[in-house]
Every structure is written in C-alpha cells, then in structure tokens.
Specification:
Elements (H helix, E strand, L loop, with lengths): L2 H19 L1 E7 L3 E9 L1 H4 L15 E10 L3 E2 L2 E2 L2 H19 L5 E6 L5 E10 L7 H9 L10 E13 L2 E4 L9 E12 H13 L3 E7 H9 L2 H6 L1 E6 L4 E7 L2 E8 L3 H12 L3 H11 L12 E5 L5 H4 E5 H26 L8 E5 L8 H9 L3 E3 L18 H11 L20 E3 H8 L1
Helix pairs in contact: 3-5, 6-13, 8-9, 8-11, 11-12
C-alpha cells in the first residue's frame, strides 16, 4: 500500500491521542492567508464514536479557544513554493492561536488546497457467508474495490464508502447488523500529487508539530458551507480562494467529487496591478474597497484615486473610474467561473437531482459575483458562509474561513475511510472502475 496509506493510519492514531487529551489545532494553509484554530473538546464527548459509517459532522462537541490568521508567504496555487517562508508563516499563525488559547498545541490537522486532486468512483461486491454484516465484511468489500492506476507519484488522500447495498436494498449508510447474501459498496477515492503532501509533512514537522490528519480543502469548505439538505439532496461548493478555486460535490451527505481550478483572487489583484499600473498592495486595497463585476451608469462617475511612489508626479497622481476597475476585474472572474463550469460539466453535475451551487471563500465577496455566477453556472446560486461554531470569533466567521471551520468539523467527526477498517491484504479479482462522471450518472 502507498506511503500515504501507511501514514494515514499513523495520523489517525495521533488524532485519537489528541482527542483524548482534548486539544487539537486545525490549519488552513492557503495562498493568500494561513488560518489556525485551536479546538478544545468536551472530555466526556471526545471519546464517543460517530453514528454509523461516514456520518457527517453532527452537533459540534468542541469549542474554539484560540484563533489566528496571518498573511500567507511562499505559497502558489495552494501549494508550498518556498519552504522557509511558509514555515515562518505557519509558526506565526500557530503561535498567535496558542497565545489566545493560553496553551501549547502539539497536534495539527491540515487542509490541502492544491495538489491537483482527481476523483474516482469505485465499486466492490462480496458474498456474505451468512448471518448479519460485520466489520470484517465491510473491510472485505472495501478491499475488493479495485485500485485505479493513479499515475506516477500520486497518492490517495481520501477513500470513503459513500453508499452500501445489501441484496436489492441500496442507499444504506451503515450495513452492519443487517442480514443478507450480497454486500456491495460505492466508494469515492480522491488522489493527489504525492510530492505536495511530502513537502507539507516536512514543513509541519519543521514547525515542531505532529500531523494528525490531512483533508482536502474543497471537502472541508463543503462540510461547513453546505446546509444539511444541500449535502443530502446534492449541491456543489465553490471555495474561491486567493490562488485556487476549489470545488466539491456532495450528495447523500458525502463528498463524491473534488477538483481545483488554479486561479483565484490573487490573479484578479494581479490584473488590476498591471491594468492600472499600481503596486500589488494598492491593487488589493482597491479591489477590496471598490471592486465589483457588474457596472452601472453610476460607476462611470465614481472616481478612484491611484497613488504611486515612482516620483513622477503625473504618474503618481492618477485616477480611474470604478467602471474601469470593473472592466479589468470582470474578464478574469468570468474566466474562473467558466473553468469551474467546465469542471462541473465534466463531473456530471447536471445528472444530480438537485443542482444547488454555494459560493464561499474570500474572493466570493466581490460585489455582484452571485449574479454573474448565476449567469455562468446556473440559476441556483447562493453565497455561503461557514456554520456557526461555539467560540468562533467574529473575525473568523466570514466566507474566507469556510475551509478552516470545515476542518474543525472534520476533526470532531472524521468520516470513516478505507484505512479505518483492517482491510485484508489478499486482493480479489479486479472490479470495474469508473471515472467520477460515469459513476455519477450510473449511481445517482
């Protein structure tokens, strides 16, 4: 089994360890910012098992006692570019959260935004020897799901059973204890580039922290931004960050698809910087203060002062209208949304019974974005912010914090994955494997 599979089990043990102690940190290492939350678990509840296989986060049994955010450094497209710079930024974020929590934290669970995720749908089927379904039967059916050829250097990040069928009864979330003859499973597998996670492991270790889990950022954002009926009936979550736009598709309370578009809010800032000939810092400030994507007649009259430091008085004392700013921003935002649309189409999203789309993430706050997104992505678009979690400071309650809040919910209620069952090592004959799009059409 691959490197990550082994370390997933080790991480799971570390997470159990952290939960016993009652404290764990979660860290979202983004391209634009790094956020850290320190979670304190109620000791009585920390040991409780989750209800059934793959049960989504229920009522949170923790509260947040520390929170900190810092400007990200050394990151590109949601991946570590410069190890030293990212290490410094992680230390800053973790130290800030520890200071607020007034305690040291050893274990951290991290969200991963980049690494080119790829989704697969797997199927497995076994005959039961009689009687009711046991843990061993679940392990056997997971083991017979044929592993796809992921390609060189790729690792499995998530492998979650999303649907069980027993004889002719489908849609079981947990088959254990049921009686039948034939057990089958649908599993969602998410692979990523191994080198990206190796670098992440290395970076976290250099910060004197123990990695107690890794989850994909699109998954985490979906857990916190989609309301329960959206997770159940089918919805996509688009997390628009600085370096990437992550997307995840949920149905029956499980993620069944994830992908990343390697463009985000920083690209919009860069376009403003080039288009208006101002610094990146000024472009970011103007974007946040005056930005938008839909111009009205009034925007021709709204004048924005552009300051510069070149020493050339005429260059440093220029102005632009808000309409001009929108003219620079809109093409890039359209490009990001068109790319997201293409990924949703490729995933077979239009085959789901419900096609709700929830936009979240820092870049989702651009005024007028929901209207533009409705035109490009379809009509059921809403803006989402993370669920309220006990102790979450107001400063961390906005859409930019969807992934880190989702990670906190993931830490509290991890979904069962392949490696949580002692799967038998002998492999049975290969079963069919489908890329996600075909799998979605066939199964839902």
């Amino acid at each position: 089994m691959n490197m990550l599979h082994q370390s997933q089990r080790a991480m799971r043990a570390k997470r159990q360890d952290a939960l016993k102690r009652g404290v764990v940190a979660v860290l979202d290492i983004g391209t634009h910012k790094i956020s850290c939350l320190v979670l304190k678990f109620d000791q009585a509840e920390a040991a409780l098992p989750s209800e059934g296989i793959g049960a989504m986060a229920g009522q949170a049994n923790f509260r947040i006692i520390g929170a900190s955010t810092t400007r990200s450094r050394g990151m590109r497209f949601g991946e570590i570019d410069s190890l030293q710079e990212t290490e410094r930024a992680i230390r800053t974020a973790v130290q800030g959260a520890q200071k607020m929590a007034q305690m040291r934290v050893d274990h951290v669970i991290v969200a991963l935004a980049g690494a080119r995720p790829r989704s697969y749908g797997l199927k497995g089927e076994v005959a039961l020897s009689g009687g009711s379904v046991t843990d061993e039967d679940v392990a056997r059916v997971l083991a017979v799901c044929d592993m796809p050829d992921l390609g060189p250097g790729r690792e499995v990040l998530h492998a979650q059973p999303v649907n069980f069928a027993l004889d002719h009864r489908s849609g079981l979330t947990d088959p254990r204890g049921h009686v039948g003859n034939q057990l089958s499973v649908d599993m969602h597998l998410l692979s990523i580039e191994g080198a990206v996670i190796e670098t992440l492991l290395h970076c976290v270790r250099r910060c004197d922290l123990d990695l107690a889990g890794v989850a994909s950022a699109p998954y985490a954002a979906g857990i916190s931004s989609l309301v329960e009926d959206e997770q159940e009936l089918g919805a996509a979550c688009i997390d628009m960050g600085g370096g990437t736009a992550s997307l995840s598709i949920f149905i029956k309370k499980h993620m069944i698809y994830a992908d990343t578009v390697r463009m985000g809010g920083n690209h919009v800032t860069s376009d403003i910087s080039k288009g208006l000939q101002i610094s990146m810092a000024d472009a970011e400030r103007i974007k946040c203060r005056f930005g938008g994507v839909i111009a009205t007649g009034l925007d021709d009259r709204e004048v924005i002062e552009l300051t510069g430091e070149t020493g050339d008085w005429h260059h440093d004392r220029r102005t632009a209208t808000r309409a001009e700013l929108i003219g620079v921003m809109r093409p890039r935002v359209e490009e990001i949304l068109e790319e997201v649309r293409a990924r949703l189409d490729a995933a077979g999203f239009d085959h789901l019974p419900s096609q709700r789309i929830v936009l979240t993430g820092g870049a989702s706050q651009i005024p007028g974005l929901d209207g533009l997104a409705s035109r490009i992505l379809g009509n059921q678009v809403r803006l989402g912010r993370p669920l309220r979690v006990q102790g979450l400071p107001q400063s961390a309650a906005g859409p930019a914090f969807s992934a880190v809040v989702g990670l906190a919910l993931f830490a509290a209620h991890p979904q069962d994955e392949w490696w949580d069952f002692e799967t038998p090592s002998e492999r049975l004959p290969a079963r069919s494997l489908k890329r996600a799009a075909k799998w979605l059409r066939d199964n839902w």
